[in-house]
Amino acid sequence: MRVTGWRCAVCAAEVDIAVPFPWRCPNSTDHDRRHVLQIVDAGTPRPPAEHPNPFVRHDGDLAWAAYADANGVDVSARRRLVLELDDAVRAVAGVGFVRTPFGRSDVLSDALGFADGGGVWVKDETGGVGGSQKARHLFTILAHLRAAEILGHLTERPPLAIASCGNAALAAATLARAADWSIDVYVPTWMSDGFGDELDRLGAHVHRCERRAGDPAGDPAMFRFREAVAAGAIPFTVQGPENALALDGGRTLGWEIGEQLADQRVGELDRIFVQVGGGAFAACVGATRPARRFHAVQAEGCAPLALAWDRAGADVGAGPGAVAARWAELMTPWPDPHSLADGILDDETYDWIGVFAAIGALGDAPIVASEADVVAAHALAGSAGFDVSPTGSAGLAGLLAIVDAIEPTERVAVVMSGVAR
Questions:
Q1: pLDDT tens readout for residues 177-191
Q2: Residues 402, 367 contacting (CB under 8 angstroms)
Q3: Cα dihedral: 158, 161, 167, 170 (round 10)
Q4: How far is the C-alpha of 301 from the C-alpha of 372, rounded, in Å?
Q5: Which positions of the chain have pLDDT values less than 50?
Q6: Rounded to a whole number, what is the largest CA-CA distance in the chain?
Q7: In contact, 340 and 371? CB cutoff 8 Å
Q8: Is the separation of the CB atoms in 296 and 287 below 8 Å?
Q9: How many CA atoms lie within 13 A of 19 on its CB side?
Q10: Number of helical (H) and strand (E) elements in the chain, helices listed first
């Protein structure tokens, strides 16, 4: 297996891959949560298996599978586990885990003035499980839990818990329903009724979280989620510091882009634009290096990543350790998150260290898209035929923000993730 363990990016604590439930760094506490376990691997991705399910295709590269393997669950048993879960997901969602579409959008390419040799490629996650990429992050947590049950490491089922303002909650509720597992979803008071109706339909227990007297700055939904985990719930969430396995399955999207580029004989992408809320999505895609340049995109109404980047200054080039030591100073809650792209209004970029690593290698600062670009990107994505939410098209807003500085012959990519509701 390629993955050999976990190491904290902040304190360098290590966790063996055979240990169950590697949710948080062992040095993370209720008073100091500024730690994040990251995957330690032994090199480049292995040749994928010939199978449409990404978790079967990339079994040899995934941390959940390495845990199972280290405890004696062989590849055939892991494949059965994945496919049984996938069948259950299909029964709930009407779709399972497959390679999602990726190709050049002639409409977007023409609208933005790209030449025939360049253009805009789109990875379209809107038809995937839950309508976004979020289920990829969560599936590896669920697979780890099922393996733990098989191995006797988990003998009862505490409730799952997630803090989310949209797509992640729907993905989590979908997978929980498929696994017949109780889930509590902690959401902000402003979450749309449409999302709430879907969560109710899936049987999730929804908790709208108002700010309480005495709450510190930050997201009250996250505080209530953490209280639930402290009381015994399983962190079924997409923030790496709360559950490191959220940084596992998200990488399948970047690997797929590489495979699909090779299949289409496109060559290397010049740039990829990825929307950033909590940051796990961008950290995972960035770790797979699908393009020469990596652009992390936030909206001007909520840009804690860009603020942290500016504060970091010269330390950005000194590597993850230098910025990680300044976590409390650099990554602080955004005071008034607001944007049409409401699914990326995390007031902190929880996985900012991984995103910094992805963008810092080439010196590309985060892009802060204006609200006008967020609105325009959503309209443009719709005109190009993508049934996507403003959150899901926010990466395109980053492209609009700097399109005048991009050569017409460049090949760029965006990810549409978050179906319109």
A1: 999 999 999 998 877
A2: yes
A3: 40
A4: 11
A5: none
A6: 58
A7: yes
A8: no
A9: 15
A10: 17, 13
